[in-house]
Amino acid sequence: MNLLRFSSFKKLLTLKFAQSLPVLQQTQIKAYHWQDKTENQKTSDASNKFTELDPEGWNERWKNRNIGFHKDHINVMLEKHVKRLVNKRENIKIFIPLCGKSLDMKWLADQGHTIVGVDCAEVAFKEFFEEHSLEHTVEPVENLSGKVYTSKDKKIMLYCCDFYKFSRDTAGQFNGIWDRGSLVAINRQDRQKYSTLMKSLMAPDCQYLVDTYDYNEELWPDTYDYNEELWPGPPHYVSAEQIQSLYGDTCDIEDVDTVDHMEEKHKKWGLDYINERLHVITLKK
Ligand SMILES: C[S@@+](CC[C@H](N)C(=O)[O-])C[C@H]1O[C@@H](n2cnc3c(N)ncnc32)[C@H](O)[C@@H]1O
Asked: Which residues lie with the beta carbon below 6 Å from any ligand 1 atom?
């Protein structure tokens, strides 16, 4: 409650402060917040609030090395809760949507699991196989208008294509899904389409771990109407209620863990706090 009141107070101050500035200075503030954006990024027409990126825009980010989302360590939540993903099974088939060149893939493959990933940025796959010195093949996949990168031991298969072209006809269903930097990265208006596809990829025993962020409550669109200078994502805010509405029709959802995720860059985004949250999604019996 106190936090809520503080957030509203801060919002009011921000608004008053911005209104009192000459136009030039307001433009500079805006430029500061948008400094790591590329020209292919734009805000949503519907709300004029949130960044929208298409595969071309993401490829440009990779080209410009604007890839702050890539970490040189295994994700903390994954390391802590990998047992929930594996669920006492061996050599399971794990899906990593919007995988980039995440180290999590190699880490899970080294534990004996088979990894299938999808990303539109071929440079990510080239770097992944090179950085791990993995022998691999590259083949075209015509119906995806893309390619598949396969490690020699066939433990890692990475599809380079638009995610929404991928389906269970491509590589079947999965026993586990690790969704980090994926649901939070997609354009907000695509969430329903995304969750419908994800549910179709879940085998009956699938343990789907989804990692999301929540941050300053006043940045959440339902609760404020002034956001010109505030964080437009990605990552986008995904609430527990939103996960329920996207997956709750056919799935059970468990809120498993919340950890503080605040880094220096988040302060520059204008956030007071940012938490990383983990949910486990399973098909209803
Ligand atoms: C925030 S990054 C996360 C990468 C990875 N999951 C990680 O944790 O490092 C989002 C990734 O999604 C990819 N991407 C975004 N939209 C896509 C789409 N429509 N189809 C395929 N890949 C997409 C981008 O190229 C980018 O690598």
From this structure: 55, 58, 69-70, 98-100, 102, 118-121, 124, 162-163, 180-182, 185
Model confidence pLDDT, tens digit, residues 30-45: 222 222 333 334 444 4
For residue 116, give the 3-state DSSP assignment.
strand
* Closest ligand 1 atom, residue 235 Cα: 1
> What is the Cα–Cα distance from 104 to 229, expressed in whole angstroms?
34
Angle among Cα 195, 281, 4 to the nearest 5 degrees reads: 85
Q: 61 CA to middle of ligand 1, Å?
A: 10
71 Cα nearest atom in ligand 1: 9
Each as own residue / partner, the long-range contacts of residues 82-88 (CB below 8 Å, 24 or more positions apart, any chain) are: 82/108, 82/111, 84/207, 84/209, 84/256, 84/280, 85/176, 85/178, 85/207, 85/209, 86/111, 86/113, 86/176, 86/207, 87/176, 87/205, 87/207
Q: How many CB atoms are closer than 10 A to CB 162? A: 15
Q: Quick one: which of 189, 204, 150, 205 has its CA closest to 47? A: 189
Enumerate the β-bridge partners of residue 251. 283
Give the sign of the dihedral formed by CA 70, CA 179, CA 273, CA 21.
Answer: positive
Cis amide prior to 22 (ω within 30 degrees): no
Model confidence, pTM: 0.82
Atom of ligand 1 nearest to the CA of 119: 22
**pLDDT tens-digit readout, 183-226:** 999 998 899 999 999 999 999 999 999 999 887 766 655 444 44
